[in-house]
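User: Could you go from structure to sequence for me? I need the amino acid at each position, not a summary. Structure tokens:
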């Protein structure tokens, strides 16, 4: 693999750590700034909503700028954001500090994945994607637990400082390793727009939104759940998040192998598996030892949801429109994060953190129900569309890492 690809993966690790670093310290931030936990949840949902709304526009606005320049500017924005967050004196300033980099976040993802693919031969493009996306997995295994640990060791500001340092390292890596990449002028292909008339495309997007909402209705408030239900301290929370992330990498790899043989099985039974794990957490969450085992299983199932979501975004999509339809996937991912976090916060405010399991289950059951809907492929895409057994999408193994 070209060293540029690993530099891009480090960049993804930096921005993803910045996005998720508040998960482990949400209860601390709520207490520090004297806001409710559902209000503090806007540090996650506000970021995600900004990404969802700005994604298509920011990508279009930056299409003529050197790709390396955009990557560096986005990382610089994240460095400044984290420093602003660490210096925040009130919740409003902290929220604004979080939202600013989210505006440019989609451009980084789109460019990093595309640039990574261009570093290798076409046949190795899936491997390049998996390496770049590895930065996301590592952020959950190392980034989030690390920032949570330093917040417990010192104070909440340390979490943002560490996140900022990670982005500085990523900035220097991209500056030194990634080659200058001027934009290649291309004619607009308006024919791609016709794919959006196909119902199955919107079923894919809706499935992604509901599934991610179900995942983040609970994931966004894990630290609060561990603290109030399992009565863990800060150090224990960071260790549990580490265990959650390690299990996630293992689950991503194994689930990728399983559903590559029957991708529809993954779409249908992932929501069921996550519901069962969360129900176990509901009934056994007050016991430390059983909850430790449940957290491992939870991380194993949860993280594979990103893999399944990416695969669903390309499900039954003709190859010639795959890049176009995939450009909308990050927006629906982040809309899912937004809805899930807001809904989870509403439940916490209304009935307590213990009951977030049930709002998560509602989203996941809705996603499960969508797997029984098979809209007919119409128009010119009908003859190009392949059956479920054929690879009309990137296989889960190509996303696994």
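Assistant: Here is the amino acid at each position, in order:
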């Amino acid at each position: 693999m070209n060293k540029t690809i690993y530099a891009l993966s480090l960049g993804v690790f930096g921005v993803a750590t910045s996005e998720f670093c508040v998960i482990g310290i949400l209860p601390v931030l709520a207490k520090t700034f004297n806001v409710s936990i559902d209000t503090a949840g806007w540090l996650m949902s506000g970021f995600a909503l900004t990404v969802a709304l700005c994604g298509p526009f920011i990508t279009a606005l930056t299409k003529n700028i050197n790709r390396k320049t955009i990557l560096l500017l986005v990382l610089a924005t994240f460095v400044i954001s984290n420093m602003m967050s660490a210096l925040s004196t009130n919740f409003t300033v902290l929220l604004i500090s979080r939202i600013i980099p989210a505006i440019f976040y989609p451009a980084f993802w789109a460019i990093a994945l595309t640039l990574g693919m261009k570093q290798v031969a076409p046949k190795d493009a899936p491997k390049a994607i998996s390496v770049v996306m590895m930065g996301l997995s590592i952020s959950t295994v190392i980034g989030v637990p690390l920032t949570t640990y330093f917040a417990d060791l010192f104070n909440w500001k340390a979490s943002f400082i560490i996140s900022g340092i990670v982005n500085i390292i990523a900035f220097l890596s991209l500056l030194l390793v990634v080659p200058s990449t001027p934009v290649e002028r291309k004619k607009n292909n308006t024919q791609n727009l016709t794919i959006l008339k196909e119902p199955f495309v919107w079923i894919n997007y809706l499935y992604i939104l509901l599934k991610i909402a179900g995942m983040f209705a609970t994931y966004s408030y894990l630290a609060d759940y561990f603290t109030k239900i399992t009565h863990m301290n800060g150090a224990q929370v960071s260790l549990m998040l580490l265990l959650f992330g390690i299990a996630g990498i293992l689950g991503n790899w194994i689930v990728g192998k399983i559903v590559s043989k029957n991708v529809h099985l993954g779409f249908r039974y992932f929501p069921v598996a996550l519901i069962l794990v969360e129900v176990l957490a509901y009934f056994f969450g007050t016991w430390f030892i059983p909850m430790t085992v449940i957290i491992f299983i939870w991380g194993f199932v949860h993280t594979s949801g990103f893999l399944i979501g990416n695969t669903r975004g390309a499900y039954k999509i003709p190859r010639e429109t795959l890049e176009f339809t995939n450009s909308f996937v990050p927006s629906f991912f982040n809309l899912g994060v937004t809805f899930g976090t807001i809904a989870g916060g509403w439940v916490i405010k209304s009935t307590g953190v213990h009951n977030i399991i049930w709002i998560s289950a509602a989203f996941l059951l809705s996603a499960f129900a969508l797997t029984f809907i098979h809209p007919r492929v119409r128009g010119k895409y009908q003859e190009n569309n392949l059956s479920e057994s054929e690879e009309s999408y990137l296989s889960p193994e190509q996303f696994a890492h």
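One structural detail worth keeping in mind: The longest helix spans residues 125-153.
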